[in-house]
Amino acid sequence: MVFPEKRLIKRSVTLRELELPEDVFFTKQSMIRYLCLSLGLMNENESRDTTIRVLDAFLELWKERRMGVDVSDISARTGVPEKTVRYNMDKLRNLEMVSLERGRYVLHEDFDRRILEVISRILEKNKRVLNRLLTE
User: Fold this and answer.
1) Left if phi > 0, otherwise alpha if psi is -120 to 50, otherwise beta: which for 102?
2) pLDDT computed for residue 1 by the predictor
3) DSSP code of residue 25
4) Total domains present in the chain
5) How far apart are CA 24 and CA 30, in angstroms?
6) Whole-angstrom distance, CA of residue 51 vs CA of residue 87
7) Contact (Cβ atoms closer than 8 angstroms) between residue 85 and residue 78
8) For residue 97, what are the contacts with CB-CB under 8 A and spacing of at least 6?
9) Which residues in the chain come in under a pLDDT of 50?
């Protein structure tokens, strides 16, 4: 039997447990890089900074306005093409850190609760499969 994995995958979540040394808080750039690494938005030793620039611009625009942020605003602030901005913002949507409301991105400051719910659903399904394996 061929397992149709692709149609079953709803989302992929990568979280990394990182040490949190004090020097992470020395610069905004290092704090944003820490978030990107920890939330699986980028890989370790990745030299491209697009994800960092997009997240930085989004957070700055969010702090300034406290309302939805448009892709074109992030693009204008970073010089990153809108298609690339959307790609990076979709990664944040996948984590439920942001949502898209009327074409604008909105930060969920309670995203920790939201991601815990996602992880809980994933673990519950895995628990069901493991229990079935152990009882057969």
Assistant:
1) left
2) 56
3) G
4) 1
5) 5
6) 9
7) yes
8) 39, 107, 108, 111, 114, 115
9) none
Q: Alpha carbon 77 to chain centroid distance? A: 20
Residue 99's SS3 state is: strand
- Answer yes or no: are the C-beta atoms of 105 and 58 closer than 8 Å: yes
Q: Can you tell me which residue has the tokens 């069901």?
A: 128
The model carries a pTM of: 0.82
Token output for 95: 């984590």
Q: 23: which 2 tokens? A: 């020097």
- Which CATH number fits the domain that encloses residue 48? 1.10.10.10
Q: Which domain holds residue 36?
A: 11-108
Q: What is the pLDDT of residues 59-72, one digit of tens each?
A: 999 999 888 999 99
| Cα 6 from Cα 104, distance rounded (Å) | 29
DSSP state of 70: -
Q: Which two tokens stand for residue 36?
A: 């990107």
For residue 68, give the 3-state DSSP assignment: coil
